[in-house]
Amino acid sequence: MKILLIAPDSKLPNLALMKLSAYHQAQGDTIGFHIPDPDIVYGSIIFHKNKGWAEQWKRMYPDSAVIVGGPGFDPKVKLPPVIEAWAPDQNLYSSKYSIGRVTSGCPRRCSFCMVSLLEPDGIRYIQSPAKIWKPGTILRLLDDNILAMESAFWEVNNFCLSQKVTIHFEYLDARLLTDSLAFGLAQMKHEYSCIHFSWDQTKDEPLIRRGIERMTNARVAPGRLTFLVYLHDEASIPDAIYRWKILRELGVTPFLMVNNEKRTPLLRKIARRGCRPMIWRYMTAEELFSDTPRKT
Fold this sequence. Notes:
alpha/beta, four-stranded parallel β-sheet, 12 helices, 14 strands, globular
């Protein structure tokens, strides 16, 4: 059987397609991104604004079974459990990373986040890091909130230390940091020596400050900490300015992420500046988040 994979709006290697690739290869199927006359087409849509692509694919491949999923199409569409548990095909993409998830889901229910729709039952364990990692690569974990399942974090910690693996966590929940977890993170070798966290809401400031203090007590310099600052819409700009200022005052590196579904011309300008330290380091927070910043 011939199977075509499509993932036009995935910025990172698409984990679901990697698992489908591994599973179907084990069944003897031919699968990839450049398969002519496919019997099956798997399409993944990340952003809701691209949902219309599904109908286009059905018209493009009228003789194929077109199966579409992804958070931008329908959060309820999931991989079958037997495929979800499969080790991802790390050869599907040419990448320095081994991509995967040890856990999926998050116990929090943030109004702006889709994770609770994708995983309504909270956090769950998927597979060991040993099944994900390909020797010679950096282990990049896309877990939604791995610190919410400490046993999974310590499994990753022990694996990385024993195998001398470099790790890249997606943005961690600093609110959950204990002294023990901070020490565990400090033990590990991180890509670019940088540890990534997020600060999404101003109300969490005391917990964010506590988390940064615990990391510095574990002898991690503030400059090694990067905090994602989420900007939901233009009405949230004052809140984002406040968080940005506090993080810079604390000596950590902020990184801006703007909601892809609500990018106005102003938000697009802010997004371009906010992920480029060589630009924003010469600006005040007010200038960074303004429509016409001071020229440098």
